[in-house]
Specification:
By secondary structure, the chain is mostly helical. The chain has ten helices and three strands, in the order E-E-E-H-H-H-H-H-H-H-H-H-H. It has a three-stranded antiparallel β-sheet. Helix 3 packs antiparallel against helix 10.
């Protein structure tokens, strides 16, 4: 039989059986939570109880964005023109960019490329080049983002608070970072990197891009 052009290690069919990462889908139904199933699909293994809980925290923290963000406005505007739901959702996805939905990718890049630098050095480099530090600052939360505090507290409780979380908080406290504020986005990015530190496998999970930046899917949520 000729080799298939399209191949994936995530799932396959053998006869009438559907397999996901080697597990029969029929056996997973009713035995895995949705979070555990997502982890399995992304990483190819089942999560520990702590990994599942950390991922749950991240999912809940991102569940609602109200009606003001660009992606929501775009979706509502397109649907109001008489288009179907799937067209509106597509419009919303196309509204994602570096200032909305894409900040996670930028802060993950910063994290990976500068982890050996001090917070002060990173802040000075960005400010000297007139570049905004991704993942910091919020239009409504001026002192702190309560969602970020909650995420980081769980990262500490569950053992996923590592060097990436520490770097983020050091940057937040840096006197030169005049408008610093760890937001939910950066909290998720660093928390996920904490999970990555505990994992052997590295994958790609950038929901708003097709970048080749390598991160552990679970680490996505710090």
């Amino acid at each position: 039989m000729s080799k298939k052009m399209w191949r994936t290690a995530i799932s396959t069919h053998i006869g009438t059986k559907a397999l996901v990462r080697g597990y029969e889908l029929e056996e997973l139904i009713g035995n895995l939570t949705f979070t555990e199933a997502i982890y399995l699909v992304l990483k190819g293994e089942l999560p520990t109880e702590k990994e599942r809980k950390m991922l749950d925290v991240m999912f809940v923290a991102t569940i609602e964005h109200s009606i003001a963000p660009p992606s929501i406005i775009a979706a509502r505007a397109v649907i109001s023109g008489g288009n179907s739901l799937n067209v509106g959702v597509g419009a919303g996805i196309l509204a994602f960019g570096s200032a909305h939905g894409g900040a996670l990718e930028d802060i993950m890049k910063l994290l990976q490329e500068n982890i050996d630098k001090t917070a002060d050095k990173i802040v000075k480099e960005y400010l000297s080049q007139g570049k905004r530090i991704p993942g910091f600052g919020h239009r409504f939360f001026k002192d702190f983002d309560p969602r970020a505090k909650k995420i980081l507290s769980f990262a500490k409780e569950l053992g996923f608070y590592g060097k990436y979380c520490k770097l983020a908080e050091d940057m937040d406290r840096d006197p030169l970072s005049y408008n610093a504020l760890i937001t939910r986005t950066i909290a998720i990015a660093y928390a996920l990197k904490g999970i990555t530190e505990e994992a052997e496998h590295v994958g790609v999970f950038l929901p708003n891009s097709t970048s080749s930046v390598k991160i552990d899917p679970i680490s996505y949520f710090s």
